[in-house]
Amino acid sequence: MNLIGKIFVVLIFVMSLVFMSFAVAVYGTHQNWKTAATATKAKLDNSQKMLAQAEDEKKKLEADIAEEAIAKRQALAKLESEKDELQLQRDALTKQRDELMVKDKAAVAALDTAQQNLAKLTSEVEGLRGDIRDSQADRDKNFDQVVKLTDQTHQAQGELKRLQERQVQLAGQVAAANNVLSAHGLNKDMPVDGLPPQVRGKVLAINQDNMIEISLGKDDGLRQGHTLEIFRGSKYLGRVEILHTDTDRAVAKILAGFKKGAIQKGDDVATRFKVG
Prior knowledge:
Helices cover 64% and strands 13% of the residues. α1 (3-28) packs antiparallel against α2. It has helices at 3-28, 33-183; strands spanning 200-206, 211-214, 227-232, 235-245, 250-254, 268-271. A six-stranded antiparallel beta barrel has the order 1-2-5-4-3-6. A hairpin with a 4-residue loop joins β4 (235-245) and β5 (250-254). The protein folds into two domains: 1-136; 193-271, Beta Barrel (Thrombin, subunit H), CATH 2.40.10.340.
């Protein structure tokens, strides 16, 4: 119940007392006036006292109403102040929102540009990757060629070294041959009538058809038709005729008319300078 309701209740209570007093007074007119007057006076005094209390209560309620009104005005002023502050905050937030929307639009535009650049860069990267793969394939191919050429170079160098050593060996043999020719009153420009140079080697293999392989060849000066002597230590075994020559190998047949024993692998082969 609010303050105004309380005031009305008090007023109703007071009026009830007043009407009750009137009713009592009317009822008292049928009795002794003096007794009635005394009773009425007492009731009137009581009513006045109650009215005074009601007035005091009314003043108190009015004071409370006034205080409550002041509190309401103060609260309203405070609410107005808070409303103004909230309004300012709302305006600031609205401004901030507008700024953020502008920034968001700029960010979206920047993102679109970045995505376009990314797509372009991705395409370029794919192209570069293809170029790199092609370059790697070419590099691997070139590397294989380099390795192959390096192997060939090493082989050629090894062959060159072998030939150089063979050249030195042959030069020594030529020098020795020249010395032998000189000792017999001959020289290298004189015809030798099919005689082989002075050489010495080994029998490498022999078959059932009286064919043998020896460790001498073209590099030693042997040619088809040359004849060589076969021996083992001081034992003469026979003569062979060269049929085919390679660089350092030759195939010869055993001449039956000169065979003096069984020829074996490892037997010595030498040039015959004098036929006898």
